[in-house]
Amino acid sequence: MFRFGLFLLLLLSSQVFGDTIVLKNGQKFENVKSEIQSDFVVFEWNGTKKSFPKKQLASLKLRPVLLNDPGTAPTKPTKKPISASDELAKERIRMAESFLGQFDWESEIGGKPTVAFLPLEAGEGVSSGEIETINQIFSTTLVQTNLFSIIDPQSLKKIKSEQEKFNPDCKTNRKDCNMLLGSLLNAQRLITGKVTKVGNILYLNAMVVDPSEKRIEFAESEVIERSKDIASGSELFSKKIAGGILEYYDVSYYSKSNIPNLIYLKQSAYFPGFGQINFGKEKEQNFAFYRGLTFGVISSILMFKAYTDYQSFQNEKDNYRESKDILLLSNTRSLDLISLWNEQRSLQRLEGSAAESRESVSLLGLVYLFSLVDTYYLPSLPNVLPKASMHFQMKPQTNVYGQKMNESVYSLELRYLF
């Protein structure tokens, strides 16, 4: 008994749980407190601050990190010492806020918990406006965490109404009915609760239920003392619940590999150079703009050439068929020789035209692919033409030869000024 008590004391006085980070190169960092930034994951390891791009992460598992003794006073003086429950609530909020506003995180197939949120009931004294506001903010915050697959309210309402139709007792939100509802929705976790009011103070209470095990996993509460704090209190309450679900649910997340310049890639896929031109205009990158213009002009020329080569191929094919028909219909030896020679010449021209058509199409495809590759690497290419500009100029010139001979020459100049 003494050893067990000593173990609990050591456990509470040191870091327990903690995030687990696994990199794609096999490195693993356990029991760390991670900070998710827009492009990097930052954490402290053995007294050293480490930072890795999100694309290098193979998986990230979020867990609460408890570093303080229950009742230990913090470094900065406060009115009351930090309790274990306060620190756990802070950690649950940290976990819930990890992916806020970041939609490039996914989990393994079937790994992201499916959560059903039953709107909190309104107790005595709670107005319809208050309960509706609390439920809306709660569900919105839950979705924004990007930690779960949330069952949409319409599906939940439909299943619940069907359940109440066959079992009228379920209209009172009986516990066993809620368990069954979670199973019908194929939800891994079900959130249910109630809001009560004493005076002007609102008390939010919720439970997270595991329908498959038919047990309450944990409960959370929040007190809102002023009506103007309903929004912030409901949001905080939702984050506590979200972090608490992760504490009990084993799920790992990874960052999706986003394709850079996807918008401009789509534009260049429609027509070579179009993406570079728009990128150059929006980012004021003249070098990208003129590269796109070059790709567009070259592609237009090649498309015209491919079209004319194909038309030439079709004409040669028709000529070959005609010469072959003449050869088959000839009835004299001299006409056979002429027809055979004409047929052979027509076949050679057809083969040459087919080769030219293939070359034109291949060259156009090569330029098309090169344009896409160039668009993909747009941000990494420098703007080497910061002051480049383009000017068109037409120069008329008249030459006189004798009394009755005049020659008018018009020259069109395209100038790039660097």
Structural key phrases:
Rossmann fold, signal, alpha+beta, six-stranded mixed beta sheet, DUF5683 domain-containing protein, 46% helix, elongated
Largest sheet: 6 strands, mixed
Residue share in helix = 40-55%
* CATH class bucket of the largest domain: Alpha Beta
CATH architecture of the largest domain: 3-Layer(aba) Sandwich
Low-confidence stretches: 1-15, 68-81, 383-388
Mean pLDDT: 79
Fold-level CATH name of the largest domain: Rossmann fold
Secondary structure tally: strands? 18
Count of helical regions: 10
Determine the strand fraction and express it as a percent band.
15-25%
Q: Output the helix-strand order.
A: HEEEEEEEEHEEEHEHHEEEHEHHHHEE
Tally of distinct domains = 3
Question: Can you identify the CATH superfamily of the largest domain?
Answer: ABC-type transport auxiliary lipoprotein component
Rg on CA atoms, Å = 37 Å
Organism: Leptospira ryugenii
Signal peptide: 1-18
Keywords: Signal
Protein name: DUF5683 domain-containing protein
